[in-house]
Amino acid sequence: MREKIVVPNAPILVESTRSIGYSFEAAVADIVDNSISAGATEVLIGFQSIEPAWLCIEDNGCGMTAEELENAMRYGSQSSLTQRSENDLGRFGLGMKMASLSQCRTLIVMTKKNGMISAASWDLDYIVQQNNWSLKTFSEDEIQQFPGYDYLMVCESGTVVIWKNFDRLQKESANFHQDFDEKIDVTRQHLALVFHRFLDATERVGKPPLKIYMNGDQVKGTDPFLTKNPATQSLGEIPLTIDGEKILVKPYVLPIISKIKKSELKTLGGKEELRQRQGFYIYRNKRLIIWGTWFRLVKQNELGKLARVRVDIPNTLDSLWDIDVKKSKASLPYKIKKSLADIVYQTVGKSEKVYRYRGRKVQNDQLVHVWNVIDDRGTFSYQINRDFPAYKLLENTLDEKSQSLLDSFLQILENSFPYGDVYYRMAKNETTSESQLMDEQTVYDMAANMISEVQASHGDTQDFLEQLKHLDFFVKYPEVVKKIMEVYKK
Question: What's the domain count of the chain?
Answer without folding.
Answer: 4
